[in-house]
Every structure is written in C-alpha cells, then in structure tokens.
C-alpha cells in the first residue's frame, strides 16, 4: 500500500498469489479487460440511461482526464458521497484510472461525519449531489470547507447536478472531458500496474467502519484483496454474463458494492441496474423491466417486499436470488421470503473489514433459515474464542476473530486502535459474538462492541451519547440497543435531566443541528433518575435494558 500501516507479510502475500486469490490486476485494468471481452453488452442501467462496457470504459477515461485536469492524481483521496446513481460508478472507475482513492461516504452523513472523513483521509476533493432526499449537499460542503479553513487540503467540490450559487464548485459534467489516446491513464498492455505506476497492491479505496467508539474509522482495501472479495462472492453466487443485479441498498455499502454486488457483477460480465430508492414498488418495476435476476436487502425491507409481492400484480419471474444481510434475518422471515417471492434466499454476514460469509445456493433450507453462512474463501482463518482468547468448541458462543486474503491488517491512520483491534498474529477482533456449527456455518448471537445495528445502519453509542450531553436539559445519557422485530435493534436513549426530559422529536432535531446523520437519533427517549453503574463504575447498560421489560 502507499500508506504506512500494517499489511500482510511477504509469506502470506506470496501464498495468496500462488493460490490465485490475488491476481495482480488493478481495477482500472479490470475495466479495460471487461470492455475488450464484453464491449457491446450493457454494463450499467440508471433509469433511461444505459452504458455498455465499452461506454463505461470510455467514460472512466473521460472522468480520469477531467480529474487529472483539476490536479488530482495517484494516491489522492476523494470523498464520494453520492446516492444510488450511475455517477457513483463513473466516478469510482475514473478515480481508479488515476490511481486515486475513493472514500465511500453514505448519503445520510452530515457535517460532523463528512468533516471527520475529510480530515482523517486528507481528502483533496469531495463528490456530492446537488440535493438528495430534500437535503442540500452543496450547503453541507460549504460548511465543511469553512471548517477546514484556508490551510485545508480540500481543494475541490464536484457536484452531480446544479452547483448552485457556489462559483468555485465544479459541475460533474465539466469533469467529463474528451480523453485522447495520448491522455489515457492506462494501456491495454498493463496488467499489474496502471500507466501512472499504480500497483495492484496499492490502496484502492477506503471503506467506513461501523464506528464503535465515536466517528467511523477508515478501512483500507487494496486492488488485490478487494477484487478477490468480489470475485469469491460472485463465484459462490454463480454470477455470469446473464446476471442482472439490482442495487437497492446504498451503492457505497460494502454489501451492495462487492458481496458480490456491483463489482462482482461487472467482473462477471453482467448488468448492474441502479434503484433510486429501496421501496418494493420501485424495485419491482425495475425487476419487471430489466429482468433482474439478483438483488440484496436488509431485514427491515423483507416484510415490505413480501407484502407487495402478495398483491400478485408484479412479474417477478426473472428474480432468482435475494440476499439478506446487514443484520440478522429473523428465522420466520427467512422461511417465508423464498416462497413469497419465488426465489432462493441467501443469508449474508460480513464486515467492511473483510470476512464475508454466505449461505450456499444449494444449502438445506434449515441452514439457510437459521445461520448466516460460512466463509467464502478456503483461506479465511476463523477463530471463536472466550473472553481470555481461548478457542471454544463448536456450538459455543464466543467472539469471532478472523484473518485472510481480504481481511485488513490495520485500520487507516489508527495506530493506537490497531494495537487492541488485532492479535499479535494478525487476527482481527470483530467484536461479533457467534456460534460455529460443524459445517462451518456461523450463527450470529450478538456483539461485544458498544454499537447498535439498526437495520444495517451501525450507530456508535459513544458518539450519540456525547452529543446528547450537549442538550441543555440533559445531564447524563446512555444509548442502548434493544431487540426490535422490524429493525433487528432499535435505539433507546436513557437520560438524566434536572427537569422534564426532551421528547424524541426534540432530541432528533438537536442531534441534526449538531451535524449527526438522522439515523443516529434515538427511537425512544426514557428519563431515569440516575444511570446504574457496574462494580467498576461503568454505566450498566444491561440494567438499563431490563427497565424496559418491567
């Protein structure tokens, strides 16, 4: 990698290359190869707009040339905060052609999160929509730039749509310039390096962690390891040139983008269709029109999709596989989903840090409905350990530790955290509590991390608690997750106040004004006279959850 941080040993790297996991090809080169193999096939669909593989390859050259004209080059980090639209893919591959590094931000992130990402990554540019979901991202970026000050590295804000009154913001269409062969940043002869020197072992992108101790950390992924991530998932899912994948969940999520998702589909020569929202009505219309064969959901969407399918007014005959991940799928929903949609259900349990587990398409129904899959790679090392780090027998719950050819060895610029997040022999401490079956399938039991998983959105309790304390009425606060049939978990804020506690809506507005994403606002606010403490003086969150059961 171009950044100094823990990585795989030379022996491990040699073993992964020898096994064929790491193929020595950059993403810029992979798109060029795909264009030569599948040039006339449709690669990407967004509404009425379509790109063949040849079109997508040429578009990547145009975007790369335009970005280069702005002074963006190899190793530069660029925050990409776009909703589900084709431009995310165009920007992503344009950056790859340069050897620049996209930082995947979520559409729901606001000033606090984006400013943090810009600072942590030393981003030189951000790519945003003009407006999305009635929110003005241009105003957001104006505030972010003001926070950076005149000495900040953030030089450019690129806007998909109308830049509005901001004269120094660059419209995306102006970035798409004609790229002459002489200006191309890649040649067909390049296999393991781009023309500007990008190597397959270099940093290819930065994903976001769920963030358990405040703001998210950045997860470095190389061309080699991330391509294997997508390819291994694609092989298990039997993707090929006939695959039509519908991107329903946010396209920047690791699940949507590479498990196998967008990248896996493009690497197999299939077609990616972008859904502008996850509603079943929008998705079913696209499934009918584009003959979609595969898509991915989070558990909260499942009952809505089943209800809409029961109307019988949609032709879903092309849809063959529906993945469900991001949170644990209730067994009852797992058993009903397949018959309701006429599909094979595939459970997915993974992490942006690496390890991906999938149920197999030919697994018995009981395994599909009661487990969250098994590792995709034969070289995924998995340990389930007790509190002292000792392996536990199959069937016993313990913390999941993992390492392998696509699992990180260290967070980006997080030396102190890395000391405790990894074992001395390179295992990543996931914080997930699982049981492993003799088949290798994992059953997710819970987490040891102080993090709430609300329908796939990871909410760091510490960050929200810190911001709750800025409300003038709140003197102490603790955020806990409680089981919820719809979301998997919902968040409850226990607050200590001098007078009456603010209501849920008031708290949500306060957190919004503090710059937090809307999904981090608590679902419920409960006033308590004091916060219970453990014997060592920490807030006893187990005792708090028991209060809700009385």
Automatic annotation (TrEMBL):
Q: Indicate the segments forming the AMP-dependent synthetase/ligase domain, all copies.
A: 32-412
Presence of the UniProt keyword Chloroplast in the record: no
- Official protein name in the record: 2,3-dihydroxybenzoate-AMP ligase
Gene3D superfamilies according to UniProt: 3.30.300.30, 3.40.50.980, Luciferase, Domain 3
Xref: CDD domains: 23DHB-AMP_lg
Question: Domain named AMP-binding enzyme C-terminal: which ranges?
Answer: 463-538
> Which source organism?
Streptomyces shenzhenensis
Which keywords, in A-to-Z order, does the entry hold?
ATP-binding, Ligase, Nucleotide-binding
Matching entries from InterPro entries are given as:
AMP-bd_C (IPR025110), AMP-bd_C_sf (IPR045851), AMP-binding_CS (IPR020845), AMP-dep_synth/lig_dom (IPR000873), ATP-dep_AMP-bd_enzyme (IPR050237)
What residue range is the signal peptide?
none
Q: Which domain of life is it from?
A: Bacteria
Q: Cite the Pfam families for this sequence.
A: AMP-binding, AMP-binding_C
GO MF terms on file? acid-thiol ligase activity; ATP binding
Q: Is Ligase a UniProt keyword of this protein?
A: yes
